[in-house]
Amino acid sequence: MLQQFLHDFGYFALFLGTFFEGETILVLAGFLAFRDYMNIQTVILVAFCGSYAGDQLWYFLGRRHGRKLLARKPKWEAAGEKALAHIRRHPDLWVLSFRFVYGLRTVMPVAIGLSGYPPARYLILNGIGAIVWATVLGYAAYHFGAVLEGVLGNLKRYELMVLGGLVVIGLLLWLWRRSRTPKA
Fold first, then answer.
1. Rounded-to-integer distance, Cα 145 and Cα 30, Å
2. Cα 2 from Cα 35, distance rounded (Å)
3. In Å, how far from its chain's centre is CA 65?
4. Of the candidates 170, 163, 166, 179, the residue with the CA atom closest to the CA atom of residue 5
5. Are the beta carbons of 60 and 105 closer than 8 angstroms?
6. pLDDT, tens digit, for every residue of 150-174?
7. pLDDT confidence tier of residue 27, bands split at 50, 70 and 90
8. What secondary structure does DSSP assign to the chain, as a single string?
9. Which of 38, 64, 112, 141 has the most neighbouring CB atoms within 10 Å?
10. Which residue has the higher pLDDT, 86 or 51?
11. Do residue 163 and residue 137 come from a single domain?
């Protein structure tokens, strides 16, 4: 049942998850690939596509409506100003690496667009950053499954507990992030 569900919807859910945020669902997909429910190369490709497409959208929205978008949420506005300061000092470095910085993942592409960063350059460097992120995090999660199996033995008997634990951790992180966001 789980295998059929993941076959039918797993990659689509991964695409949507990485389009909007990414880390938790990519870790879960990497672990599922280790358990042979998903294919690790396809996981990395889909995570790259979702992350890349989402960040491209946020970048172009930032170029067109950056200040309005950031003003909608006070936390985004503060993070946007912080992001703009980073971008002004080391623009290429931040385009390549913002995915790895907690708290700036969503707002950074908006700020990059707002900063006037060249679209063609963003297209290329964002692609490089997205593929590095998807590959590193996807394979890290995949190998985490191997480490768990080495420590716990045959994971098959713990599979539901581990998957449930990863889902609970993801849900708790999502709730914690939402609770820290001030209501506008």
1. 8
2. 12
3. 23
4. 163
5. no
6. 665 655 566 666 667 777 777 787 7
7. confident
8. -HHHHIIIIIHHHHHHHHHH--HHHHHHHHHHHHTTSS-HHHHHHHHHHHHHHHHHHHHHHHHHHHHHHHHTSHHHHHHHHHHHHHHHH-HHHHHHHGGGSTT-TTHHHHHHHHTT--HHHHHHHHHHHHHHHHHHHHHHHHHHHHHHHHHHS-GGGGHHHHHHHHHHHHHHHHHHHHHHSPP-
9. 112
10. 51
11. no
Give the range of the structural domain holding residue 89, as residue numbers without chain letter. Answer: 1-152
- CA-based Rg of the chain, rounded to a whole angstrom? 18
Same domain? For 158 and 145 the reply is: no
Q: Does one domain contain both 4 and 70?
A: yes
Overall number of domains in the chain: 2
Each residue of 28-58: pLDDT tens digit? Answer: 888 888 888 889 999 999 999 999 999 999 8
